[in-house]
Amino acid sequence: MTAPDTDKKKVITEADKARGRRIARARTNMELTQTELADMLGVSAGLVGQWETGKTGLTAKKAALLERLLKVPMTWLLTGDDPAENRKAQTETELEQLELLRGIPIEKQEQFMHIVRSAAKAFQNKET
Questions:
Q1: Do 103 and 60 meet the contact criterion of CB atoms below 8 Å apart?
Q2: pTM above the 0.70 mark?
Q3: CA–CA distance from 36 to each of 11, 88, 95 (Å)?
Q4: Per-residue model confidence as pLDDT tens digits over 71-105
Q5: Rounded Cα distance, 89 and 47, in Å
Q6: With contact defined as beta carbons under 8 Å apart, do 20 and 53 qualify?
């Protein structure tokens, strides 16, 4: 019977590296050094460096702290997906629509949206 291999090194995936780059980018955007962030988190600067290279993963508790300290969504921090991006205009047409909506007085926007919803339904019904 052989002993379990305790010398196995963790394989660093592209996802690990990408997560590390996001942590590093968020940290530098906040103008923090690894040491400053480590002090805020109560960990070593070496551990922050390991996170940023993808050598070590985050615990849920540390990810939540990073979210708060670095002012980034945890979803983006862990996966790269940013829910806020889904709320931004994606095309020139969407941007124009957004600008038109924003140009309408706030008290008239619901009335405008009613018109837009009715038009959208009419177009959807024509396609089916």
A1: no
A2: no
A3: 28, 33, 39
A4: 998 888 888 887 666 666 678 888 888 888 888 88
A5: 38
A6: yes
Q: Is 14-83 CATH 1.10.260.40?
A: yes
């670095």: which residue's tokens? 70
Cα–Cα dist 113/126, whole Å: 20
* Tokens of residue 24, six digits: 């590093």
Encoded amino acid at 100, one letter: L
**CB neighbours of 72 closer than 8 A, spacing ≥ 6?**
22, 26, 66
Closest CA to 24 of 70, 74, 79, 57: 70
Taking alpha carbons only, the member of 59, 67, 61, 55 closest to residue 23 is 67
Beta strands in 1-128 (DSSP E): none
Distance from C-alpha of 29 to C-alpha of 23, rounded to nearest angstrom: 10
